Amino acid sequence: MTPLDGFLATWSRARATFGTGIPRGGEWLDGDRLSQLQTAVDAAHPGSYWTGAAATAYGERNARQAQRIGRVAVLDRELGSCVTESALTVSVGRQSLEAVRDWVLATARAVPPGSHREQFLAPIVLQGLTQLRQAVTSSSSELDVIASRIRLLADEYADLRTEEERQGQNEDDETSSIQSVDLKQGPGGVGDRRFNEIEAFHTVFGRLPVSAADWTTAAVLDPHSYDPAAAGVAPEVVLARIDPVAGQGVVRVGQWIEQRDVISGPWRRDFGNTRGADPQFDPANTKVTAYIDYENGLVVMRQNPSVELTPDGGPGDVRVGVPEAAVQQLPDGSVRIQYDAGNPFAPDIATNPPWPLQDNPWTVNGDLVVTPTADGVRVDGTRTDYPSMEVYQDLPDGTTRTVLIDPATAGNSTGPMINLPQHHDIGAGGSAFAPFDQGSWNPKYDIRVPLPWTELGPAAAPPRGPTIQSPGVVHF
């Protein structure tokens, strides 16, 4: 290897530390939206038309809620500023590296051929390596400072959560004075949620979320519920590590019920999500969600709590099921995910039906293949006819691409009972499974066999899928 070859190899390793794609700033951390919400909540004070002890208690609680939302808005703006500075630092670092490489190559081209060429190249390469080290060190130092600021913000989110918990205990003592009042519900625990996202991400990756992909994944990893109807019952979250595919961003697969409530069994109804397709859907506002974070190398499956309706139509019993999922991955980064998520209120016969229906349980299940391409991911496979499914790809340049919208076959409250046992193809259907079913080689019998599966597990110890081998062969 010549000195110039050695420099280029070192340069490539240094460049890899800055990632791929266009770094996204923190504009999406919308503190302005929270400020508008603070104004709306603050405007909901009792006013002159309602007086007395209950009105006073409500007004005080409403004011505290508005104040908390305002504080979270400020923290979100500061966090967004940190993310923007981080993106700028990465961009400047990349430009510095490219400038060093261009200088070394241009100077090297000016050295005439001959027996002493390598000798003349040595000081050029040495100076290039020095500038390379300075550029990486400078960027790393700036990113360390930004990371320290984010850690301080995480502490402030934590302090806000502690205040909310303490205030919540005090508000419990006030309940007797306002027990007959139907309080307006604000976004309780907004600061708590941001802290929980940071904590959930740190548990898995051992670092704080910085990029847009980090924060997107942090939201689905958060093992908490914030909808008052869920009564504090947490979602079930399972995950597995895969090999990253830089530049493909995060693929979000949401399955949701469009109606307010649906039939879940004889004389039983469950709450739906009461929404249409939404490119910015909240992972907590789905029934079942799968995220493939190609930037960080992670697959996440999340099942949110199910809420039964009471006879008068309000929220009643709350339960959550544990989703089952397993993944395979091809050398090109394609991910196959098989999943099965049952309604926790459903009888055992629904999730484990007898013959001849044993392969058609009343669960949300499917077998999907997500394939990266130059134009973004493609989704193929098969899934149940219910509920509706939406697939989006958040790219590193900050854009969101709609990959697929697949409405439920029955757009009414009978959907779970009628459609769950039925399936239909997505894209190329089952033909997309062939590379996975024949992706490994058994040398003992000289035959092709399926790629190994990795079952998704807990966040505390996420299982690791087999490292991708070229050409996708796993030796036994």
UniProtKB/TrEMBL annotation:
Disordered, as annotated region: 161-189
Annotated Pfam families: EspA_EspE
Protein name as catalogued: ESX-1 secretion-associated protein EspA/EspE-like domain-containing protein
Domain ESX-1 secretion-associated protein EspA/EspE-like positions: 18-98
Protein species of origin: Mycolicibacterium rutilum (Mycobacterium rutilum)
